[in-house]
## 1
Amino acid sequence: MPCSCCAPSGINDLDGTFDAASAAKEAKRFLKRGAVRRTLRLIRPLLALPTPLDSVLDIGCGAGAAHQELLRRGAAKLAVGVDASAGYITAAAQNATVLGLRERTLYHQLDFALHAAQFEPAAAVIMDRVICCYPDLGRLLGAAAERSTCFLALSFPRNNWWVRLIGTAINGFSAFGRSRYRFFIHPEPEVLRVVRAAGLLPVESSTLGAWHLVIFARAAAPAAVPPLQSS
Ligand SMILES: C[S@@+](CC[C@H](N)C(=O)[O-])C[C@H]1O[C@@H](n2cnc3c(N)ncnc32)[C@H](O)[C@@H]1O
């Protein structure tokens, strides 16, 4: 019997869970209406930088909204999108073509935690709703934070009673449907510890619905990001 990382759809059944049908739906929505409010709020400090980021690494990029919004608004020059789901990577690449961004993007379908060493550092790393899909926080988030030379934009679920209830419901439905996928609420102190260990500090923090949105920066990053705010 293969171990979970060698099973056909890998750790936490990401490829099976984030399938082509949901990818196509999200990609279509992005083309029609742009990035959702959470994603826009998350990348807002990057959109406000005085000069474009040389490169962006969007890990768990889904249909590509975060990095494609940065590219099309002139806030980033190049972007690399990584996702464990083949359906999402295909959808992101197709949207990049439709938006005329294909020559400024590269896409990889793989588990970033297992293949991080092959990626060049980027000025900004983005992880929008990704660590909640992965059991090994230290391995995924630690590797991601290490690849940021300036910023890390991270959204992750809040750990309160109603988000835990949603998580329990998601996991109940998954188990009932015989899926191996599970939703994880990693404790905020642990998230901060992993990122700090990679040399990044939180500079802006807010919440939106079920999500914490945090921008981290290296000490040497351009001083264009507003000081830490909490809400
Ligand atoms: C909830 S979706 C979010 C997609 C997108 N960032 C967004 O906010 O619309 C989470 C995505 O992260 C991807 N993902 C989770 N862990 C990953 C890993 N270790 N390596 C690559 N992709 C991963 C999943 O395949 C999935 O497409």
## 2
Amino acid sequence: MRCNFCEDYQDRGPNMKKAGPILQVTGLSKNFGTLRALSNISFELAGGKILGLVGDNGAGRSTLLRILSGGLQPSGGQIYLEGKATRFKSPADAMKKGIAITYQFSQLVDIAKVWENFFMGRELTKRIGPLAFLDVQKMKHLAAGAIAKYGHTFDVEREARELSGGQRRLLAISRAIQANPKIFLMDEPTHGLSKRVINEIFDLLRKTKEASDTSIIITAQWYEQVCDFVDEVIVLRRGEVVGHFDAESADGGQVFKLAMGLTP
Ligand SMILES: Nc1ncnc2c1ncn2[C@@H]1O[C@H](COP(=O)(O)OP(=O)(O)OP(=O)(O)O)[C@@H](O)[C@H]1O
Ligand SMILES: [Mg+2]
């Protein structure tokens, strides 16, 4: 089943601002030994659009995002980034190509401070004569500014383990989007958070999207967790696409039944 959005997009012809989808996935599969985690996954993502990936436990959402961010290699199929066949050799390679991800389970280092987590792996340095030093003041200042930009002020000197679940998620998200990605992948960012924090995260992401035309893929177990946020939704079940709708035509009850394998 194809969504109306994708068909409209393809029909807009050569004069449209963007010539094609930013991301295209065709026939993607992933086996773990004899277990088929993903089977023949195909979809397109247009610039500045938000795609939801919904499915029950083990449906393959995290596996798909890990392939799209270089953490896993597919067993088959193809990925096109801005129309060009692409392989992400590693997370660093995917990041270089404009893909950022926040994982289902926090990747923050608990005993590192907020600013250290924010710049982990891309620390800023300054030169004094022939020597290079970490530019701690600048990193603290930039981390505080990035977090404050989204209406939050938590002390960047605090260790990550002292943050609440929502603050951890906001830190991970603001760290990822600081790199100004073309595509931002988020694995279950709403899980275990209150409606208020979820709305804050969605507001933050809308601002980012408006400012930079970033495309987003967000996973959730239930469509209701993301229905106010996405432009379209793909339903995964046991590694297969069992539904693909634009948000206007998606029906929560039908998505649920497809995700659970119940007869409509
Ligand atoms: N590294 C791995 N080795 C072996 N099997 C794996 C591995 N990662 C995932 N799987 C299997 O692949 C399938 C899809 O898992 P995945 O984590 O992608 O699902 P999911 O939709 O993210 O579910 P949830 O987040 O609710 O657990 C599951 O059957 C899982 O057991
Ligand atoms: Mg998962």
## 3
Amino acid sequence: MKICFIMYPWTRINPKQDSSIRIIHEMVLRGHEVAITHPSNLTIRDSVTLSLCKTIIRADKVSNSIPSFYHSVKFKEEMRPLKDFDVIFMRDNPPLDALVLNFLDSIKDDVFILNAVDGLREANNKIYTAAYYDPERELIPATHVSKNIDYLLRIIEESENDKMIMKPLDGFGGSGVIVIEKSAMHNIKSLLDFYINGNKERSNYVILQEYVEGAEKGDVRVLMLNGEPIGALRRVPAKGDARSNISAGGSVEKYKLTKQDISLCKKVGEKLVRDGIYYAGLDIIGGKLIEVNVLSPGTIKDINKLNNVKLQRKIADYLEGVVADIEVQKEANL
Ligand SMILES: Nc1ncnc2c1ncn2[C@@H]1O[C@H](COP(=O)(O)OP(=O)(O)O)[C@@H](O)[C@H]1O
Ligand SMILES: [Mg+2]
């Protein structure tokens, strides 16, 4: 198959840790044609959506070592129409530039894009989880999204628990996630004002969320492929921090999903597939869904190492299956 990764620049990859390079390596090992490009290279010429791509030149032998593959790979640079690929894999870092989705809209009926353009549009910030239909309060912690300071102050005052979590709507990597305490109420109005009105150009929404007990011991990252969990690990926050993100200093541990986690993954997985979110990273604490990461979730290398597996093989198997199904459909429609 021909696959194009729309991603962060090749030079920014750390081959020892990066997840994208593991998927790319597996695709190259299997003899697929792999190109990479960056959102800034997207172009439209005479109604055709193209991108300046770096296509990996097929080598006689592909190294099994990912760092040596990374360092030895050779590219051919050329403008390529995106609809000539079988698969487009979005692996760019958040935050997502909505204009990228407009480029992809023009080819979404011709190419299998993961995640689907409409799914990315819907799930690219934390409203996606906050608005999850959960009448029994089983799946997500009590969550409020607003930019109305009086409303948010009232919620904090009325809360039964002393602690709550506050976070920006479109943050990532743990940035701006803080614990607020009712007992320190004199700071809260100023904090809310800063989070909401700190950026002079435009005001921001904030999320106020029930603090899920047990979060001090870490959260669980689950990689979901086509609605099924394919791997997980526990992330433990650094001492003195409430955030488990690895980029915020968290460390990783082996983790086996509990019955409650599996049941959550099943329910969430069905919705993800319906929404075209074929590949995602869930953040779970105490069996509750905290976040769905739809853009370039990492941790493949850590899950592989902790469990002696190669998740990139599952991803490659899945993509090969999707492309084979599309071929069968095309034949049937001829
Ligand atoms: N409701 C919560 N209760 C306890 N801890 C939380 C809660 N929400 C977030 N956290 C902690 O903060 C981290 C980052 O929050 P998250 O919503 O995943 O945002 P980000 O996009 O920055 O990763 C989580 O991994 C978890 O450790
Ligand atoms: Mg997270």
